[in-house]
Specification:
The chain is an alpha/beta fold and about 425 residues long. The strands form three sheets. The chain has a six-stranded mixed beta sheet, with helices on both faces. A five-stranded mixed beta sheet has the order 9-13-12-10-11. The protein has a two-stranded antiparallel ribbon with strand order 7-8. The longest helix has 16 residues.
Amino acid sequence: MKKNFVEELKWRGMLAQMMPGTEELLQKEMVTAYLGTDPTADSLHIGHLCGIMMLRHLQRCGHKPIILVGGATGMIGDPSGKSQERNLLDDKTLYHNQECIKKQVSKFLDFNGTEPNKAEMVNNYDWMKNFTFLDFAREVGKHITVNYMMAKESVQQRLNGTARDGLSFTEFTYQLLQGYDFLYLYQHYNCKMQLGGNDQWGNMTTGTELIRRTLGNDVETYALTCPLITKADGKKFGKTESGNIWLDPKRTSPYKFYQFWLNVSDSDAERYIKIFTSLDKETIDGLVAEHQQDPGRRILQKRLAEETTILVHSKEALDAAIEASNILFGKSTKDSLLKLDEQTFLDIFEGVPQFEVGKDKLGQPAVELFTQDAAIFASKGEMRKLVQGGGVSLNKEKLSAFDRPVTSDDLIDGKYLLVQRGKKNYYLIIVK
């Protein structure tokens, strides 16, 4: 017996609104549903994950997911929730971005199975590139009135002064383009449902209206949205001081990705573990109960971080992220340091005091380098005393003599020295 998709979304806190009749359709037949994503970057970020997880649950409940890459609409930009028009991309960039996105989504959806509900990826540029303006005006534009389009909240927000530059005609037509996607997918893929974030509700219902007015009142199509995910303090989910948390390991290292989930609040962890993992209700209820008995152990955050890191990256990436975490917070060796790639090394020690010294300073005693060229210790006497007490490490190895020379052989990645003073105080020397 396949799970009920709507019930699955409800208990996970992933259902915002749906059109009447949606649940009945899903219980009656295998439904093809699509979700659009914007290819303006060559990677998704965790803000996209709720939508991707909706598709994952849809497929697991026996329905067919289509992910639509907006190659055409991405050239225009959706005004929903935006205050400025976005930059337009060229064909080559869009194709590159599409391929990168498919590779990432393949970790969540089965594109290669033999089942009728295997996932598919489509690009609306394929059917829009030869669609002339006259054809569009005649086949699409005549069915939807300007009054209908003007009533949409996303249009009203831009017209009523929340945006400095108003709303361009290009953006105004966006809802028609998105509506036509739904019409095209209905006609060519028997796609009866669109999924998306709740800010897309206006564009999605334009699609169902366009299909009804084009093909007749007896054609039924549906829309279903997930809520926009926020943090407990109301701030936008997925944004940090350094920007988005990306799924691409070259943009956000697996270590930093793992740490993001590990550091969410208790209330957020309880919500996020339902949304961003595939763990079942019984398992999650058990984890929540265990966490509430002893919040200090951060059981929910640890399991959330593990599950999401494996899903987006791999088990090997998770193991490496945990080992990297131990470098800063637990016992580790020089070997652990040397295993790290440069980006992870810098991510781990982001925010620790840094000093830059020239290569000509190498070869002198540690006590000179660490007091004069890099002021880690206030005086030579202070450093000498700490070294004698075993309280100073260089690259995770105890410094046995305060006057031992520091040479190029000590450099990590040919340019870094990691000095540890006591258990918790780290300093990074960058040798240039």
